Amino acid sequence: MKTTFTYLFIFCTVMCFSQKDFYGKATYQTKTTFDADRFNNREMSEERKKQMLEAMKGMLEKTYTLNFNKTASIYKEEEKLDAPSAGGRRGLRFNSLSVGDQYKNVVDKVFLEEKEFFGKKFLISDDASMPQWEMSGETKKIGNYVCYKATMLKKNNAFDWNRRRGKENSDEKQVQEPKEELVTAWYAIQIPVSSGPAGYWGLPGLILEVNSGRTTILCTEVVLNPKERTTIKEPKKGEKVTREEYNDIMKKKMAEMREMWRGRRRRG
Fold first, then answer.
1. Helix, strand or coil, per DSSP, at residue 140
2. How far is it, in rounded angstroms, from Cα 71 to Cα 202?
3. Which of 65, 133, 176, 217 could form a Cys-Cys staple with 150, CB 3.0–4.6 A?
């Protein structure tokens, strides 16, 4: 395992050699596998299951761009129209599940995500403490870049949408600790920024691939110092909340929606 002193030396060396006006743009493809067996115990037709799986595929396979300089970055999903579903209607959207625009400044330790939930805008503040990566000498090539491997255990603080039927009253009262996931990242020291996709950062080079649980994030293109640049600035709009506070707001709203649907079913 690399020592802390070795890590800091590599990190400082790379950052010192970075250009003052260094800028780049990276494109990432994300893919999350879905456990289709979750539908097996439900009273649902095969046609409906197929429609649901197609809708989930659109949610779990996305394209993002990361515009970055040597200290800050903006990670944003590429916009695209939903494909029409059966009957001419647009496919299901899961805006509350998708990643909002994420801003990171690794020097000022400011990590913010812009999110809209039921028509209200939020500015979510995330943990800015230094990730505890373990460096290794293992390498592989991603595109034209030689990448180095790093791993860490990370707590998953994302909102948990999994809920068993018939156990609302018991499960919701239990306080569960965030689960830890093994995260594997591959970074390129040839690109001298300590940034990466989504909430990943803290390595002596741009992170080009991340594997965590069922999710893989892979960089498909990097353009350094392009003529056209996106302005990278800290977002200000929206109610500022912590990740935990935002998850609590979602839980309360989802509970309200469940009660509303139960009321409609009783009246129907």
1. strand
2. 11
3. 133
Instruction: Kindly give the residue spans of alpha helices, DSSP state H, lying in the chain.
Output: 4-17, 46-60, 168-171, 243-267
Question: Quick one: which H or E segment has residue 91?
Answer: none
The answer to whether residues 165 and 187 touch, using CB atoms and an 8 Å cutoff, is no
Name the band, by pLDDT with cuts 50, 70 and 90, for residue 185.
very high
User: So where are the chain's domains?
Assistant: 4-267
What are the distances in angstroms from CA 137 to CA 7, 125, 153?
Answer: 12, 33, 18
38 against 187, higher pLDDT: 187
What are the phi and psi torsion angles at 52 (to 5°)? -65, -40
Residue 85 in 3-state DSSP?
Answer: coil
Beta pairing class for 23-32 and 215-224: antiparallel
Q: What is the pLDDT of residue 40?
A: 59
Pair 49, 39: CB distance under 8 Å: yes
> The tokens 């009660």 sit on which residue?
259
d(CA 196, CA 143): 16
Look up the pTM and report it: 0.77
Strands 239-242 and 61-69: unpaired
Residue 186 contacts residue 142 (beta carbons within 8 Å): yes
Q: How far apart are CA 77 and CA 73, in angstroms?
A: 13
Does residue 49 sit in helix, strand or coil? helix
Contacts of 120 (CB under 8 A, 6+ apart): 239
